[in-house]
Amino acid sequence: MNSEIRNLEPKALWNKFADLNAVPRPSKKEERVIAFMKNFGESLGLATEIDAVGNVLIKKAATSGMEDRKTVVMQSHLDMVHQKNADTQFDFDTQGIEMYIDNDWVRAKGTTLGADNGLGVATIMAILESKELAHPAIEALFTIDEETGMTGAMGLEGGWLKGDILLNLDTEEDDEIGVGCAGGIDVTAKRTYKEEAIAEGKIGYTISVKGLNGGHSGMDIHKGLGNANKIMNRLLFDGFENFGLQVSEVKGGSLRNAIPRESFALIAVDGIQQEAFEFEMNELIKTIKTELVITEPKLDIEVNKTDVPQNVMELGVQEGIVKALYAAHNGVYTMSASISDLVETSNNIAKVTIGNGEIAIECLTRSSVESSKSDLVNKLRATFELVGCDVTTSGDYPGWAPNMNSPILKVMDALYLELHQERAHVAACHAGLECGILGQNYPDMDMISFGPTILGAHSPDERASISSVQKYWKFVLETLKKIPKK
């Protein structure tokens, strides 16, 4: 299947993408892809360096006639989100991504595609390898761990880069020029509890929530998509309130930056309540499906009898956690007052794990306004601390403030109009981009972000538009030709 990908145009880009996707590269496990990039740079005879945290820098001199232009930093991240469908057998630590063509889209078989940000990486690789394309001096920066903490960008030291302009190739709409982004912070609530032996007369059930779209917890947070953890908790709350449902285990979601698509629970109720419980659950399931029929048409919720669990949560802790999860904010918190249709602040209740006497609730809070981000973090902290959780924060990173007077923005805005006879959408986004962090050590660098159209990022429905990649590739090449003089 990947051979079909290699025949797509532009072949230089798609071949590098296929090469890259053959290398396992989940976040925080980038050793193989770092070595892959090092070997790639050295095989071209280009100066190749790796810094203390694992970022890779490959330098290429300007082509003939472009020596007087400003040096450009072309930047993308090496890691990818590793998400798969529950029925997909795949090991992200050992396997390369299996791709196929679906009309105008390139997709992966039951997993994330890695177009975020692999197409950016492949773009830079193709330009580095080319002997024909015109460009100024290039510093190709490949950062690590963007998806789960941005530790690569955070660890990048000042002075390593000499470029004047940074082209971040990590935006996912081909008619957009990015000039700003949200910052983010991880919020984690934990506590322990005593397990109680199951009483006589109980029956066991499994509850599964599946079939949700999932998606990027920043770019897709405003779309009204279902959150598997919130849906599961709604079922648990109703069962507890009406039938004394007891929780043994809950496992929902996997990554902070992905809207959770699946959740699974093991519970128990009194045997004498069986008929009424099953009727109530079926009615609630119908209600939830009706509410989400437009945004989540494939939602599948099942309640099935199973063996009775041996242990359940102590009742007082269970009541507090179920109510806290109901109260905890998920989704859009505030919209921007200064930029139309931009989400300012949001939270994703990304992962809920309950079992063996331990509770862990993992969130990712995003905002383009630091005070609003702090406000929502405090709201979450208060919610979970009221039920005895220890709440910690980590991975705090800043947003990227828009500069509407950016010289490279003016160049690219005019170029887009020239190429397409319409204006590009100049915008900030609610995702986290590395530009804000890089700007702390390189405050004078002129930054912009753009990329091809990618839909469903951070989910197994991730797909990249073939025609959009062609459009974007031309925009990249023409931008490099128009880099201003020093």
Commentary on this structure:
The protein has 486 residues and is α+β, with helices and mostly antiparallel strands. It has helices at 2-6, 11-21, 31-43, 115-129, 151-155, 228-243, 274-291, 315-327, 370-385, 407-420, 435-441, 466-481; strands spanning 47-50, 56-60, 72-77, 99-102, 105-108, 138-143, 165-168, 176-181, 183-192, 195-197, 202-210, 215-216, 246-252, 258-259, 263-270, 300-306, 311-313, 331-335, 343-355, 358-367, 390-397, 425-429, 446-449, 454-455, 463-465. The strands form six sheets. Strands 9, 11, 13, 15, 16, 18, 19, 20 and 21 form a nine-stranded antiparallel β-sheet that branches. It has a six-stranded mixed β-sheet with strand order 1-2-6-3-7-23, with helices on one face. Strand 4 and strand 5 form a beta hairpin. Helix 2 packs across helix 4 and helix 6 crosses helix 8. The radius of gyration is 24 Å and the shape is elongated. The mean pLDDT is 96.
Short description:
By secondary structure, this protein is α+β, with helices and mostly antiparallel strands. The chain is built from twelve helices and 25 strands.
Quickly list its features:
25 strands, 486 residues, elongated, 9-stranded antiparallel sheet, alpha+beta, single chain
